[in-house]
């Protein structure tokens, strides 16, 4: 079990980062030997999935909005069943289409960070360019990622996604109105939101106990969850 001060400090440091980096940063905070930036997106997401299960359990209550009637659909997800495998990434990905031969690697966390800084202007060729090893036309001429036609760049991005299934956990959702659709479970957003709520509640506990007993934050955080709960109940919280 990760100590409360360690988790709170990891969350605080992650909160200063750009949104795409926050959840992934937790892995580096808790394991300094982990090179988060070099980690493929799917491998990172699978570890975050496992991390979320260890912190908050296998059940996730969520909601989705129906694209047909706009009602909210309540979901209770079994994360143990949805857990993607934590596997070593494949080697080079080879794509041959539209008169081009492309070799690339999987997108990494550092690529997500760089692409997020492009904002809404990010193009398929930008994604390919981050991961490109080599691209040539069928006559052997080398080309850059931004010289690839849109349909070829799309084929490369789709090949990368297929080679990294852990990067997109899909949910098949149905609404009482009869509509069905597929949505993606964004484990990074889920974990970061839940951890932020947990830290907020923890600091509220610290606030109440510090006022009542004049204990330091460190002393309160060092208490077990059971003992913190007992003192709070004794105070009527």
Strand arrangement within the widest β-sheet reads 3-4-5
The number of strands is 7
Counted up, domains total: 2
Beta-strand percent range: 15-25%
The average pLDDT value, as a whole number, equals: 94
Estimated radius of gyration: 22 Å
Q: Secondary-structure element sequence?
A: HHHEEHEEHHEHEEHHH
Helix content: 40-55%
Reported for the largest beta sheet, the result is: 3 strands, antiparallel
Structural class: alpha+beta
Shape call = elongated
Please, how many helices?
10
The stretches of 5 or more residues where confidence is low (pLDDT under 50) are none
User: Whole-Å distance between the termini?
Assistant: 25 Å
Any chance you could write out the topology, listing elements then pairs?
Elements: H1 4-15, H2 19-30, H3 41-56, E1 59-65, E2 72-78, H4 79-82, E3 93-97, E4 100-104, H5 109-116, H6 124-131, E5 132-137, H7 150-163, E6 169-174, E7 180-185, H8 187-213, H9 217-221, H10 225-234
Antiparallel strand pairs: 1-2, 3-4, 4-5, 6-7
């Amino acid at each position: 079990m990760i100590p409360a001060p360690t988790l709170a400090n990891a969350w605080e440091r992650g909160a200063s980062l750009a949104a795409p980096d926050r959840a992934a940063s937790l892995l580096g905070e808790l394991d300094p030997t982990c090179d988060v930036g070099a980690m493929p997106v799917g491998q990172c997401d699978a570890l975050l999935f496992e991390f979320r299960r260890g912190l908050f359990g296998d059940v996730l209550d969520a909601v989705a909005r129906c694209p047909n009637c706009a009602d909210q659909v309540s979901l209770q997800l079994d994360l143990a069943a949805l857990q993607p495998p934590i596997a070593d990434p494949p080697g080079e990905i080879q794509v041959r289409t539209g008169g081009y031969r492309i070799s690339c690697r999987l997108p990494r966390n550092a690529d997500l960070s760089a692409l997020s800084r492009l904002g809404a202007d990010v193009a398929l060729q930008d994604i390919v360019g981050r991961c490109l090893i080599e691209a040539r036309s069928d006559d052997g001429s080398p080309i850059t990622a931004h010289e690839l036609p849109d349909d070829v760049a799309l084929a490369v991005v789709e090949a990368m996604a297929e080679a990294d299934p852990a990067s997109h956990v899909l949910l098949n959702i149905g609404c009482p109105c009869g509509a069905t659709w597929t949505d993606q479970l964004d484990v990074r957003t889920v974990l970061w939101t839940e951890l932020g709520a947990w830290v907020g509640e923890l600091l509220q506990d610290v606030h109440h106990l510090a006022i009542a007993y004049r204990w330091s934050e460190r002393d309160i955080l060092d208490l077990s969850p059971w003992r913190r709960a007992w003192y709070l109940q004794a105070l009527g919280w």
